[in-house]
Amino acid sequence: MELSPVQSSATDYFLNVLQMTDADGTSLPVTMIETETHVGVVIADRVVVFGKGRDRTRNEVEFSFTGFGSFEITVADLEAGTWNVTRDGISLSPVAVRQEGGVARFDGQAGSYKLTIK
Prior knowledge:
Shape: globular
CATH architecture: Sandwich
CATH topology: Immunoglobulin-like
Distance between the termini: 42 Å
Order of helices and strands: EEEEEEEEEE
Oligomer: single chain
C-alpha cells in the first residue's frame, strides 16, 4: 500500500483504519477526530486518539465526538502521571498513565473531553 496526500505540505498526517469482515459482512462506520494536536477515530463503541507530535505530551489534550451509549476511550502519547479527565466540564475519575505505555484508558459517553496532568 502506498499513500500520498491530495496536496503536499510541510507536514502530512496519515491515520489508517483496516477492518476485516466476512465476505458478506459490512464494515463498521468510522468517524475521524482531529484537533490541532491530536487525531483519532470512533469505531463502534471504541475511541482512540493519538498525538500528532513525535513525543509524549504533558500539555492539555482536548477532543470531542458524538454517538450514543458507552465508549471505551484510549488516549495515547501521554507522559506518565495522573491525568484529570472532564467531559462537558464535569470531572470524571482521574486516570493513571504509566511510563511503559503512555496511554490513558477509560469509559465514557459522547461529548467534549479534556485531559490535564496533575
